[in-house]
Design goal:
Rossmann fold, alpha/beta, 25% strand, globular, 365 residues, 7-stranded mixed sheet
Length: 365
């Protein structure tokens, strides 16, 4: 078979369009592997920070996106390895932790590459080539084994959104003793509901403003009730919880109103996890925080170890992230994929670069 030497990759110009370019297929060096991408998700941060216009974030000089191949939620099969490797080999199925840290600072040594303090820190799809391509050159230390029970689409979703939701729930100690309220039912909120079920939450309630997303969420079988984020939402939460509120709450909307709903919906002595990016937190303090004895936790993505743990747990729980995927597109339809993800998608949008993607456990939409 002739070795493929060029590949397609998707770049985001920052004007709400995509651009397809041709690249040489990279060769892995020491500590690197070449991954044939089988699935690559579109994340909300890609939309807010890159697709609609380049933005910077705290600690980064200039725009966070550096004109590389987009996509930081990839999964695929290793097809080539560098001369020095430690764990993975050709044929291994992997998902990727989406940040390459320096490996030496205290955050990296704890597995939190997301919080790496070194200028060497780089993210797939932001500062180094990402997964919206046929092949991806990956640092081997960011690879995580994809259990055989999970599809590549499952793995792509673990690569960021599910990891974020998982960490947020772990930080507030979610367990079988809890009722869980999820505010904001985009992909991260849907992930939180699924993982909350896996962690044993007795009841899971959702709050969402979009009628389209509420309808999609109701059809997934993850929620005991899905409530509209209207003027009566606080009363609705109290009604379904018999006036008690929820002992665990995760806020995924990134909006001031969503955060107010989350705090109001928390039970006395409850714990609230904030994972939604952007917006403000505006709240009355005494009645809603002090007198309810609330714990509020802010959580940013996850660690390498916990992402690995999540992949194993999802397989053990027999839960498949790909059920939240509402739309799948090939590389040739990247414009449509991003336009939908930036607009009216009901669930998660995923790009499938390969001609014959692994579709185990995938759900026909």
């Amino acid at each position: 078979m002739t070795k493929q030497t060029t590949m397609r990759g998707i770049v985001l110009p920052g004007n709400s369009t995509t651009e397809t370019r041709t690249y040489d297929v990279p060769e892995p060096g020491d500590g690197e592997v070449l991954v044939k991408v089988q699935a690559s998700g579109i994340c909300g941060s890609d939309i807010g920070y890159i697709f609609r216009g380049y933005k910077s974030y705290v600690g980064v000089s200039g725009p966070a996106y550096r004109g590389v191949i987009a996509g930081h939620e990839p999964a695929g099969e290793i097809v080539s390895v560098g001369s020095i490797r430690s764990r993975f080999g050709i044929g291994d199925r992997v998902l990727l932790y989406h940040i390459v840290g320096c490996g030496q600072c205290s955050n990296c040594r704890s597995g939190y590459y997301i919080s790496c303090s070194s200028p060497e820190r780089s993210s797939y799809g932001w500062q180094r080539d990402g997964g919206h391509a046929e092949y991806l050159l990956a640092s081997e230390r960011t690879c995580i084994a994809l259990p055989d029970a999970l599809s590549y689409v499952d793995g792509a979703l673990v690569s960021c959104g599910f990891g974020t939701a998982h960490q947020g729930l772990l930080r507030i100690g979610t367990s079988g003793a809890d009722d869980l309220l999820v505010v904001g039912l985009g992909p991260v909120g849907l992930a939180a509901a699924m993982i909350g079920r896996g962690l044993g939450a007795r009841n899971v309630y959702g709050v969402e403003a979009s009628p389209l997303r509420r309808k999609w969420a109701e059809g997934l079988g993850l929620f005991d009730a899905v409530l509209p984020a209207d003027d009566d939402v606080n009363s609705s939460v109290q009604e379904v919880t018999v006036g008690k509120g929820c002992s665990r709450v995760i806020e995924c909307s990134g909006s001031a109103q969503g955060r107010s709903t989350a705090i109001a919906g928390a039970a006395e002595w409850g714990r609230v996890s904030l994972v939604g990016e952007g917006g403000r937190l505006d709240t009355e303090v005494s009645d809603l925080l002090l007198h309810k004895q609330l714990t509020i936790c802010a959580s940013w993505v996850t660690s390498l170890q916990d992402m690995e743990r999540l992949a194993v747990d999802l397989a053990r729980w027999q839960l498949h992230p790909d059920v939240i995927v509402s739309d799948r597109f090939g590389l040739g339809d990247a414009d449509k994929a991003y336009a939908l993800a930036a607009g009216a998608s009901a669930g998660k949008v995923v790009i499938i670069p390969a001609d014959e993607p692994d579709d185990r456990h995938s759900v026909a939409k």
